[in-house]
Prior knowledge:
Number of helices: 11
Order of helices and strands: EHHHHHHEEEEEEHHEEEEHHHEEE
Number of strands: 14
Distance between the termini: 36 Å
Radius of gyration: 18 Å
Structural class: alpha+beta
Oligomer: single chain
Largest sheet: 8 strands, mixed
Strand content: 15-25%
Strand order of the largest sheet: 1-4-5-6-7-8-9-10
Shape: globular
Amino acid sequence: MQLPQFTVSGSRVQMGQQYGRLCADMIHAFATDRVSAVEVYLSEAGHSGTDKLFAAGAACLEQVRSFDPEGHAEHLAIAEGAQIDPVHLFTTANMTDVRDIIVLPGDPPVTEDEGCTSALVPASHSSNGHSLQGQTWDLNGPDVKHVIALHQIPDEGPEVWTVTCAGCQTLMGMNEHGVTVGTTNLKTTGARVGIPYLSVLHKALRQKTRAEASAVAQTAPVAGSHSYWIGDAAGAVEWERAPDSAFLRSTDDGPFARTNHCLFDANIAIEDALSETTHSRLTRMQSLLDQSTDHSLESLKQAFSSRADGRLSINRFAEDESGATTNAVVAFNPAELEFLACRGPATEGVWVQLAFERSLATTP
Length: 364
């Protein structure tokens, strides 16, 4: 599976318009698939129709207007370029958060084995003496055909690569300063109108330093629960975020993995319906990280390829029938601005390096 790559440049609005035009057909197909999937999800949770869903999406988009005016303007421009309603696109792009506003204010969650596996490696455990980061992105199997790599070269702000879905803003990415971002989904009660995860990541990736990006993830008035990790050549941090909490981990304490369950008591108390694979994936990835002090991008790719636990493995296939597949994988070496990515599982996708035109990463 080849990873489609698109490059846009200019102002935020110009880049958004170019993105929308370049990917218009893919964006409409993505939105259609997402709505079909969420209709089933909402029905299983006892909710009929999508009117409340899109109303929640509109309310979240309005929150983004003040949280990230540049990102908000860019989103409107993407919708304009693709000729799709901006609320419809925003809601489908941020579906995991927006649907939780409907289903998870206090209702029992729907059990679905979606989620991702991230791996954060400190300099002390890498072959090049610098921090490494990476993750899988696992969700609905049909979404794999919508995965793209978007290259932004703005008039103002850092050059950015992100691997995401057509029409979406940042999901997993790196900028020219060597700042990297990623996320895994968490399910807790208490979801509400706020800033969805893609908007958090999109603003964070436009920051010049890990500290500035971390502050975005820490303080954003989030709509739902996620882990957000922020890395650079010197190390990485991760925030376990819920609307009412923010808990921190750091590679200063060693390498660590994350999947799709909460690790802090306050959030454990409000989560339910964990994915079937989340504990096995975390145990396997943490074991792989702890086994070596000589990690590289190749060893991360091997870890993301693991099928050691069968259908409960890190590397997830459609035939596992778990409700999710690995739709994309990324691995970062910020010290050298190396960004490796593939569409689909690590063992099936074609790995490519996403190259930067600028090089402003600072090596500690």
